[in-house]
Amino acid sequence: MAQKSKTFEERLLEYSSEDKLKAAKQLLKHQAIKCVYRSGVNTVSALAVSAGGTTYELTLHPGEVPECECTCHDRSTALCEHAVALIMYYSKYSTPWVPEVEEQSKYAGLRYEPLSKLGGNNRDNYKSYLTIEANSVFPHVPSKWENAVFSVKIHTREREYLGNKSNLQQLYFDKTLTVLVRLSDFSLQDQQIIRFLAVNGEPDGANILLNSEGAAEFFHCLIGFERFTRNGKLLYIRGESSEAVLLRHKSGEGMITYSPGVRINGSKLLPISNAKVVTGRSGCWVGCAGEYFFVPARVDVGWL
Questions:
Q1: Confidence of residue 300 (pLDDT cuts 50, 70, 90)
Q2: pTM
Q3: Burial of 82 (0-12, 13-18, 19+ CB in 10 A)
Q4: Beta-carbon neighbour count of residue 208 at 10 Å?
Q5: What 3-state class would DSSP assign to 61?
Q6: Residue 256 reports pLDDT greater than 60
Q7: Cβ neighbours for 254, distance < 8 A, ≥ 6 positions apart
Q8: Sheet with strand 242-250: strands edge to edge
Q9: Residue 82's closest CA among 111, 39, 49, 105?
């Protein structure tokens, strides 16, 4: 028979006594606990004022067995009534210091996999990988007629396959391509790229098309990806935080000019007068010398 879980008060009695629990309730009834505040990591301090006006200072440390330092100098091994009152007071406004066992929540639509299986999905050695070549310039503004053209190839230890729309859909939805190539043979980032292109890409013979907004969304899948090229040169999509700024230039003759730019990680400044811009739904990617930075749409992207 399963053991009945203990109540909050029963757990407090394990660390104190029945008399001190009653005294703690009286302290709370007369609002004796004053000035409760966090004084450190997992540490709470407070003042307790007795009926006679004496003030006690408390510092509580939670854990499997709560510990408390109180200026009442209670010499017993149990928690004093001031500490018990502080635990009860704090439990009204936060998670109780005495931990309770909670059942795992279940949410509809989520697949629950054992941790060992999930951990095995993210490893260092994979049998297959993708390479991506940008075959066109990226459209800078949303357009019904202009598209970014991508050529995707699937590499295994034995062969190389064309990553056209049909093959990527088969690989993603059926989990295999021919007998040898499985979706689980790819890294988690490669799997996300396959998913994105299989769902959102448009077929163009052996290539895949994405409009400007689709290309901007696709770039989020390519952050840190090291096999994305254009004309044989690596295009690197960076994940650093960036923002649009106005750069101030002062010439030797004392003239001041202004130009739009990007500030990266709050410090590095990048002029964008000759930059490539790929506009998305919620911001844009700004590229310079083969590196692209995402600028969230905190300003009108047309300003860039």
A1: confident
A2: 0.60
A3: buried
A4: 26
A5: strand
A6: yes
A7: none
A8: 242-250, 256-264, 268-271
A9: 49
